[in-house]
Each structure stands twice: as C-alpha cells, then as structure tokens.
Design goal:
Elements (H helix, E strand, L loop, with lengths): L2 E4 L3 E7 L3 H6 L15 E6 L5 E10 L2 E7 L3 H12 L5 E4 L4 E7 L12 E4 L6 E7 H10 L4 E3 L1 H10 L36 H9 L5 E8 L10 E6 L2 E13 L6 E8 L7 E3 L7 E7 L9
Parallel strand pairs: 1-10
Antiparallel strand pairs: 1-7, 2-5, 2-6, 3-4, 4-5, 7-9, 8-9, 11-14, 11-16, 12-13, 12-15, 13-14, 15-16
Amino acid sequence: MTMLFDLTDSGFIEVSGTDAAKFLQGQLTCDVMQASATAYRMGAHCNPQGRIISLFQLFSHEGTFYLFMPANMISIAIQALKKYAVFFKVALKDAGSGWRAVGLQGELPADLSGTHLLRASLPGQSSRHIIAGERAAISEFLHRHGQSAHGSLEEWKRLAILDGLPSIYPETSGKILPHEINLVELNAISLAKGCYTGQEVIARMHYRGKLKTHLYQAGSNTINLPIPGSDIYRVHHGERRVCGMVIDACKGGPAHPTLVLVSASDKTHPDEQFCLDDDDKSILTILHGSSPHPSTSY
C-alpha cells in the first residue's frame, strides 16, 4: 500500500548562478556533479573543524541546486554558506515559499516519468521516497493520488530512525563529525572529489583515526521525547559519565515507548547501561548500530 506524507516541517535552499556547481563542490561533502533531478546526493556542509553545520538531500535541476533539510535549519545553513558565497557568482535563497515536498512509502507511481518533479529514493528497508517540486506541481500530484493513505510527520520520522538515517537540527549543528553518524556508509561523503571545507579533518579521521563513536538505534522506557543534542550517559557499577548525544527521537511502540537515534561511544564492558538522564531512570536499549539498516523490534 502506498502511503503519502506532507513534509511540512522541511524546506529548501535554492543555489543558482553561473558558479553554483563550483561553489557547492568546494563546500559540501558530497560530489555535487553526481546530483540530478532523479539522482539526489545526501551531503553535509561542515565547518573547518570538520563538524556538521547542516545535513541535506541535494538535487540539481536545469543548472540550479536545491538543498532539502529541516525547515528550522534553513537560516543557519544559508548564513554558513554565505560566508563563502561572496567569492562566487552565486545566489542563495530560502525556496520554501515556492517549493514543497511530500514523502512516499511504497512503489513510485509510473506517472512521475516525464514530469519536472524531483525525486529521491532513500536508503533503508522502509521503501521511502521524497518527491519535490513547485507547489502547484506537488498539489497536482497529490490530487492525482488522492486515494492513497496519508501518514503523519511522526510516522515519517519513525521510519527514518528505523532506517538509521540521521538529521541535523539547530541543537546539534556544529557538534558532530560525519563519521559519528554514519555519513560515509550513507554515501554522503566523497573521498575522491578533492578539497572542501572540513575535508582535511574528515579525511584524517577516515584514513588514520580510530573511531570510538557510532550511530545507534535505541529504544527507551520513557514517554518523554528527548531533545536532539541531549546527553547520553553510560552507567557502570554506579559510575556515570556522558558518552554521547541524542540525534533524533520519536514515539515508539509497546516494547519501547520512545525510539531514539543516538551517537555514542562504544561499550567497554558488557554490563554497562546507557540512559537518557543522570538518574538512571530512562534506560536505553540498543536495537541496532553502526550501519544504516532498520531494526524490527520496537
């Protein structure tokens, strides 16, 4: 069954101009030359220290690039990119007023062929896709598929967490290295395209570093959703210390009322316990980790 999701919590940055490709190629972790209307690239914009400022799906259409990300990240991402854009013939703008995106779970409809709608098939086992375009074109698409079931933003986020796909929010911007949330495994890092902001740190981590922090899908017994950027604690024999942070969270199911995507250092003792607060009440149960594949128990 096809399920549609109106992704009203997300938006677009439009990057245009004769230097758009050159500018983005020197800023983003992905190879922008491989992006198209039907072949998106997941990518990040990092600071010189290699930490992620923004994370997005990148599309290219008729010489213009579109970065799709959480709406509350648009102004942060534009401000960071503008620091370098002054040296290029390029224009940056929030395209949210003219563009819209919907999520789709299931098989892509055949009538997308021949349209100007952008589309991306996301990694993972939930068969999710993003369809984007001008608001009128998306409204027409939704009208043609009005018989499809509609899902909530919470369900879309739940599927993303189960697929091991991270997001960056204002609370976590500038705090996380790409390797700590599996961006290499998600093909969001090009190790061959050449220099970009933060590239030296990222390459050194990849080829010489010993990474001790990984992305995990976890379930919690708490009903209160943790905020992205909140600390994760490791408890062992009464000793408690911070070992990572929350990347994303949503409502879960009977077994685990809350699902959490966390970036945390690996366990050093088999009887260690992860928790969301410093009083050991919000226990985290690791469901899956270190690779972008979904868990089945939640």
